[in-house]
Amino acid sequence: MGESLLIDPAARAARTRAWLQLHFCVVLWGFTAIFGRLISLPALPLVWWRMTLVGVALLAVPRFLRGVRGLSGRQLAIYAGIGVLVALHWLTFYQSIKLSNASVGATCMALMSVLMAFVEPLIVRRKFDPRELLFGLAVIPGVLLVIGGTPTAMRLGIAVGVLSALILAVFGALNKRYIGKADAMTVTGVEMGAGALFLTCVGPLLPSGEVLFAMPSLRDGLLLLALSMGCTLLPFTLGLVAMRHLSAFSTALALNLEPVYAIVIAILLLGEQRELAWPFYVGVAIILGVVLLHARIANTKEG
Length: 303
What we know:
Elements: H1 2-38, H2 43-59, H3 62-69, H4 73-99, H5 102-107, H6 111-124, H7 130-138, H8 140-148, H9 155-178, H10 184-202, H11 218-243, H12 248-255, H13 257-270, H14 278-302
C-alpha cells in the first residue's frame, strides 16, 4: 500500500504531462485541415510531399539514424505497415476536405472514438469496456447533427471522411500496441518514410498519379513546409510519447477536440460559417461535452 502511494504521484504527473502534450498536438492538428483547404495541390501529391518532407528532415537527425539501427527487422516491418495506414488515412482525409470543406472533413474524425471502442479491444487484445462503448455511442447524435447541418453536395466528402476515421482508429490502436519503448522520433521517421515510399510505388497507378511528383508553387511549397514541420513532425512525435501514458480510446476522444479548433480557425481564416447551418454547431457542442465528461471521469478512475 505504501509503495503504491509513492508511485501514484509520479503516475499522475506522467498522465498530466501526456494530456498537456496531447492537447497541444490537437491544437496543431487543428491547422492540418486548414492547410488542406489552402494548398491547391490534389490530395495525393499533398500527402506525398507532406510525408517526404518529414522523412527527409529526420534523415538529418543523428538520433533518428541511431534509433533505426536499434530496431529489429520485425519492428521495422510493423512500423512501416503502420506508416502505410497513415498515408491512406491522410489521403482520404484530404480528399474529404477537397470534396466538402475543412470544417466537415475535420469533424468526421470525431467518429474515430466510436470506432475505437470496437477496434482497440480487438487489436490490443483486451476486454470490451461497456463505459467506453457508451461514450463512443454518445458522440453519434453530435455527428448526426453535424451531417444534418451540411449541404447535400458535401455528403460524398463525409463518406470519405468516415473511411478516413476508420483507418485512423486502426492506426491509433496499432500504435498503442506496438510502440513499446521505441524512440518516438524513430517511429515517426519510419512511418513517414514508409508512407512516402508506398505512395511513390502505388501513386502512379492511381487516376491522379500523373501529378504525384508535380512541383508545388512557391505559395504551396511554403504551406507544405509549415504543414510538414509544425503540424506533422512536432505533434506526431509528441503524440506518440503521450500515447504511452493514455489509452488509445482516451486519445481518440481527446482528438475529437480537433474539429473544434479546425472550425474556429476555418471561421476566422476561411469564413466557412456561411456554408454550414446551426445543427452543425450544436453537434460540435455535443461532441465537446462528451470529450470533457470522459476526460473528467477517466481522470477520476485512473487517479
